[in-house]
């Protein structure tokens, strides 16, 4: 019985990952970090939506604007992190079957 060959590792483009991160989390999904990408997208959307709703009141403006700025900070971090991760070797396509994660 022969052991299965390990899956090939792929290097993804860091520039494409950063460009795709214009939509928060999409660069991480492209790199194979699906959970991180979806959490980034959900966090950004939540901060933007709740911050915009809070802006409609006087008291909410004091809380809503910082929430929106947090969303923009998360978006900027997403671009930088996708660029950083793009230069590293990525998890192979069939990593779940191979037991790498």
Low-confidence stretches: none
Strand content: under 5%
**What is the average of the pLDDT values?**
76
State the separation between the terminal residues, measured CA to CA: 25 Å
Radius of gyration based on Cα positions = 18 Å
Main sheet record: 2 strands, antiparallel
Q: Looking across the biggest beta sheet, what order are the strands in?
A: 1-2
Order of helices and strands: EHHHHEH
Number of strands: 2
- Globally, the shape reads elongated
What structural class do helix, strand and pairing data support? mainly alpha
The percent of residues in helical segments reads 55-70%
Number of helices: 5
Task: Describe what is shown at a glance.
This protein is mainly alpha-helical and 101 residues long. The chain contains 5 helices and 2 strands. The chain has a domain at 33-87.
How would you explain this protein's 3D organization?
The protein is mainly α and 101 residues long. The protein has a domain at 33-87. Helices cover 66% and strands 4% of the residues. The chain has 5 helices and 2 strands. It has helices at 14-20, 26-31, 34-54, 58-86, 95-98, and strands at residues 10-11, 89-90. Strands 1-2 form a two-stranded antiparallel sheet. It is elongated, with a radius of gyration of 18 Å. The model has no long low-confidence stretch (mean pLDDT 76).
């Amino acid at each position: 019985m022969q052991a299965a060959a390990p899956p090939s590792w792929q290097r993804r483009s860091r520039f494409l990952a950063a460009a795709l991160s214009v939509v928060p989390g999409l660069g991480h999904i492209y790199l194979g970090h699906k959970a991180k990408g979806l959490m980034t997208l959900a966090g950004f959307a939540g901060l933007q939506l709740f911050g915009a709703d809070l802006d409609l009141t006087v008291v909410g403006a004091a809380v809503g604007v910082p929430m929106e700025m947090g969303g923009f900070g998360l978006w900027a971090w997403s671009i930088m992190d996708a660029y950083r991760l793009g230069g590293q070797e990525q998890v192979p396509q069939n990593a779940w079957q191979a037991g790498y994660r």
